Amino acid sequence: MGRSTSSMQLTRAADYAVRVMVHLAKQPAAERALLPTLAHATGAPESFLSKVLQGLCRAGFIQSRRGQAGGFEIQPAGRTASMRQVIEAIDGPIFLNVCMMSGNSCNRKNFCPAHPVWVRAQEAMIGVLNSSTVADLAAQTLVPQAQIARAK
Amino acid sequence: MGRSTSSMQLTRAADYAVRVMVHLAKQPAAERALLPTLAHATGAPESFLSKVLQGLCRAGFIQSRRGQAGGFEIQPAGRTASMRQVIEAIDGPIFLNVCMMSGNSCNRKNFCPAHPVWVRAQEAMIGVLNSSTVADLAAQTLVPQAQIARAK
Fold first, then answer.
1. Which of A6, B10, B15, B115 has CA atoms 20 to 30 A from the CA of A98?
2. Min CA distance, B104 vs chain A (Å)?
3. Whole-angstrom Cα distance, residue A120 to residue B15?
4. Between A83-91 and A12-26, two packed helices, what is the crossing angle to 10 degrees?
5. Is A12-151 assigned to CATH 1.10.10.10?
6. Residue A103: pLDDT band by 50, 70, 90 thresholds?
7. Alpha-carbon distance values, B107 to A50, A79, B115, B123 (Å)
């Protein structure tokens, strides 16, 4: 009940996942990045980021290569992934309220006047997170750099 | 990182707060409800609900009276409170991501392409939660009962 409760908040893991995906999408094609570089770029502790990267590998959004010229590389499915997909790869499905989890049938659903509001609030939020892909975000960061290059 | 992480999820306390506010708003004017009645109506454990009720009292949304005919009673500010206000009275301000907390300045804010998306996603969700008041929700629940009464 304290003010420290984090309600409706993205986990740090999912936040770092978005950061690292955008960073990898900005790399030149087929270039790989090592864990320390990614930790520096995202501001995440290496050991924590390592678990996030494992989750992104499992989702097929990135690949990890060993040996010389090894490191993490973005995959096509990672470029086209939406922010929602990146978040859900790490945190599992987004549900604003427990009553909205599939398989978790709330016995108040039929008469609860709040239920449709939770549904609408979740749809509004997810709609925004669906509409931005990793590639979109990476392109947006590049805009200022391109402008600087053109201005020179 | 496990699938049990609850990302962007309302706390149980805030969920019960909305339930209890709607229940109290449906009571006849100046009628008071006792803790066991409210616990039964909301499906919340009494000890847990008691803390939620304290938070709602502090916010000025309900009042607790002692003695005979004592109990919890909704206040005018409670009827006009939005779902967002009820949630925030219990959980504190809603922030989809830590970088959006006031006073918590993220040093990536100026170049982070994800930041504006978090802002838009939060605004979309909060817009919905702002638009429904406790009185609105209570009125919606009453509709079926009124229809039954008319049909008799």
1. B115
2. 14
3. 16
4. 130
5. yes
6. low
7. 22, 25, 11, 22
**Close Cβ partners of A1 (under 8 Å, ≥ 6 residues apart):** B13, B51, B52, B54, B55, B90
If you measure CA to CA, which chain A residue comes closest to B49? A1
State the best of B9, B42, B52, B136 to mutate against chain A, taking most chain A CBs within 10 Å. Answer: B9
User: What tokens does A85 get?
Assistant: 């997909």
Place of tokens 């805030």: B14
β partners of residue A64 = A72
Please check the confidence at residue B89 and state whether its pLDDT lies above 90: yes
Tokens representing A99 are 């009553």
ipTM of the complex in this document: 0.85
Across the interface, do A94 and B43 touch by the CB < 8 Å criterion? Answer: no
